[in-house]
Amino acid sequence: MHATEKAMESKLQNLNSPKGKFSIPSWPSLLLIFTFVAVLSVQIMTKSTLSPARVVLSGSFEPDHASSDPETCAGFFGELPKRKVVMSIKDFGGVGDGKTSNTETFRRAVRHMQSFGDIGGAQLNVPEGKWLTGSFNLTSNFTLFLEEGAVILGSQDEDEWPIIEPLPSYGRGRERLGGRHISLIHGNGLTNVVITGHNGTIDGQGKMWWDLWWNRTLKHTRGHLVELMNSHNILISNLTFRNSPFWTIHPVYCSNVVIKGMTILAPLNAPNTDGIDPDSSTNVCIEDCYIESGDDLVAVKSGWDQYGISMAHPSSNIIVRRVSGTTPTCSGVGIGSEMSGGIFNVKVDRLHVWDAAAGVRIKTDKGRGGYIVNVTISNITMERVKVPIRLSRGSNDHPDEGWDPKAVPKIRGISFLNVVSVNSTKAPVLAGIEDAQFEEICMKNVSLLGLAPSARWQCQFVSGFTSQVFPLPCPELQNNGSSLWCSFS
Ligand SMILES: *[C@@H]1O[C@H](CO)[C@@H](O)[C@H](O)[C@H]1NC(C)=O
Ligand SMILES: *[C@@H]1O[C@H](CO)[C@@H](O)[C@H](O)[C@H]1NC(C)=O
Ligand SMILES: *[C@@H]1O[C@H](CO)[C@@H](O)[C@H](O)[C@H]1NC(C)=O
Ligand SMILES: *[C@@H]1O[C@H](CO)[C@@H](O)[C@H](O)[C@H]1NC(C)=O
Ligand SMILES: *[C@@H]1O[C@H](CO)[C@@H](O)[C@H](O)[C@H]1NC(C)=O
Ligand SMILES: *[C@@H]1O[C@H](CO)[C@@H](O)[C@H](O)[C@H]1NC(C)=O
Ligand SMILES: *[C@@H]1O[C@H](CO)[C@@H](O)[C@H](O)[C@H]1NC(C)=O
Ligand SMILES: *[C@@H]1O[C@H](CO)[C@@H](O)[C@H](O)[C@H]1NC(C)=O
Ligand SMILES: *[C@@H]1O[C@H](CO)[C@@H](O)[C@H](O)[C@H]1NC(C)=O
Ligand SMILES: CC(=O)N[C@H]1CO[C@H](CO)[C@@H](O)[C@@H]1O
Questions:
Q1: Which of 217, 218, 219, 243 to mutate to test the pocket of ligand 4 (most atoms within 8 A of CB)?
Q2: Which of 33, 120, 154, 379 is most buried as measured by Cβ atoms within 10 A of its Cβ?
Q3: Is 295 a catalytic residue?
Q4: Cα angle, residue 318 at apex, residues 253 and 221 outer, rounded to 5°
């Protein structure tokens, strides 16, 4: 312990700024913190080994002792971790005038804070102001804290979003062959990372990228606003994210991720500005978010065709609760179309979507392989959503010629309970795949009001069970099968 204090002291002396808010902790307080961290990591370890079925049934990763609120899945993260060192970006010479580049400053700050990772962690505060920056990486045992009025602005210089390797489960950049631009805020191989604050803003200033996309001059796949890869115990909360160049929050190959109390905004015509895309990740809790953007509010994914199939890294134990918002050409919650590593145990509850193309949409195709199994969708309200429920093939995009037409996805056990849609224009569309019928589709208490009398369900290669569904479902879902496999029954 004494050695640890010495190490901290000497690290502080290396720091050229006197402003770091830090006091040498007393032995009992250190002991307390280490005990807390130890308990926390034991809890996290225990919780991540939970059986998947439990998640769907209880709606939470575990009845949590730290949190008395049964209506949250965020509890497993524990309380906001306290960091031993708290400093401001100003301590590193940052300038919040919206013009000066802080790229090197953020990188230097994180490098410095990395040295506290194994001795109590560090927090970087971003105060009120406009902090222009290119891409920077986070570190472990670290909090990025945006105070009220703090705005991090994404650089308008493409070179400040350097090219990194494509994801192995995609085999190439999602939009262009080869590498892809790194995200504005990035992390790889981290544990215990928090991005939070008093509703400060991270604004990707994505217009430049959308223009490149629109005018077909984009050379490499666009970067995300925040991407964390191969990371564990992540909390992103209480902030506003705006104008991402591409998907806004992208946890990929991660576990134990909580995204809560976020506002995510992009112009409704900004291409591919998905809100939150859990990708080949497990134990993901998305709660109390407001999202409006040019693409799906939430899209669960797991890799693309032969690359996703061979990596076989599923997304599982995903809870999406109390999410609301609008996206005129896309869906409230999308599952797929990239789902080749498999997706299981997804629970969507109390979703509210308006003025959207679809409420809940499962997207897949031949060549994808993989599976989507055990999805429960409950308490959904929709207004002016064109197709409230859409399960379909026909994504018709593949990474390259190497995809296997015989690799058909398995879609099974998709349950809908308590759904109300007002002023939709189409009845559900359920279009399975010829050699891979969508099975065990269950709908109970689903009311689609205000449809034209001529509106008919469109069903093909699908089977399932319905009860209390209006308007009358297609024969494939009438009195066929059993309610036993409805996961909420
Ligand atoms: C993060 O903190 C934990 C608990 O103190 C420690 O075991 C781990 O080594 C730290 N990780 C890093 C990368 O410093
Ligand atoms: C950030 O991490 C990525 C690896 O994920 C690496 O390629 C890149 O060079 C790092 N950037 C900086 C500024 O360290
Ligand atoms: C955070 O800021 C956004 C954007 O200004 C606002 O819409 C949202 O209501 C704020 N959230 C909270 C909790 O104050
Ligand atoms: C495409 O958009 C970029 C970014 O706005 C712009 O610099 C470029 O001139 C545009 N190219 C064309 C051909 O319009
Ligand atoms: C979000 O902010 C509220 C109000 O400041 C606070 O009580 C809560 O703990 C924060 N939650 C998270 C997960 O950061
Ligand atoms: C799906 O749920 C059923 C019934 O609870 C269970 O038997 C099965 O193992 C689950 N499958 C997956 C992949 O989670
Ligand atoms: C639907 O909402 C009700 C009331 O908020 C809640 O009690 C119930 O658990 C929800 N259903 C599911 C399947 O989560
Ligand atoms: C059907 O769903 C509606 C809307 O969610 C809900 O208000 C109602 O209580 C449900 N009915 C039954 C019998 O569960
Ligand atoms: C009922 O489901 C079975 C498969 O579970 C399917 O083969 C059959 O065509 C379905 N019946 C109708 C009327 O669609
Ligand atoms: C159930 C229903 O049809 N609700 C509304 C749909 O929109 C029209 C106006 O466009 C309203 O008059 C309906 O009440």
A1: 217
A2: 154
A3: yes
A4: 45
Which amino acid appears at position 132 of this protein?
A: L
Q: Are 313 and 341 in contact (CB under 8 A)?
A: yes
Answer whether 119's CB lies under 8 Å from 8's CB: yes
Q: How far is the CA of 463 from the centre of ligand 1 (A)?
A: 50
- Among the listed residues 199, 255, 197, 208, the one whose alpha carbon sits nearest the alpha carbon of residue 228: 255
Q: For the chain, 489 residues long, give each residue's pLDDT as a single digit of tens.
A: 344 444 444 443 333 333 333 333 333 343 333 333 333 333 333 333 323 322 222 333 443 344 445 689 998 777 889 999 999 999 999 999 999 999 999 999 999 999 999 999 999 999 999 999 999 999 999 999 999 999 999 999 999 999 999 999 999 999 999 999 999 999 999 999 999 999 999 999 999 999 999 999 999 999 999 999 999 999 999 999 999 999 999 999 999 999 999 999 999 999 999 999 999 999 999 999 999 999 999 999 999 999 999 999 999 999 999 999 999 999 999 999 999 999 999 999 999 999 999 999 999 999 999 999 999 999 999 999 999 999 999 888 999 999 999 999 999 999 999 999 999 999 999 999 998 999 999 999 999 999 988 999 999 999 999 999 999 999 999 866 666 667 764
Judge if the beta carbon of residue 188 lies within 6 A of ligand 2. Answer: yes
What tokens does 224 get?
A: 């995300």
Cα–ligand 3 centroid distance for 92 (angstroms): 28
Specify the residue for token string 């809870």.
319
- In short, whether 437's Cβ falls inside 6 Å of ligand 5 is no
Report which protein residue has its CA nearest ligand 10's atom 5.
423
State the amino acid at position 84 in one-letter form.
K
- The answer to whether 121 and 11 have CB atoms below 8 angstroms apart is no
Q: Which listed residue (279, 295, 296, 305) is catalytic?
A: 295
Q: Give the separation between CA 82 and CA 109, rounded to whole angstroms.
A: 18
Would you mind telling me the total number of residues written for the chain in this entry? 489
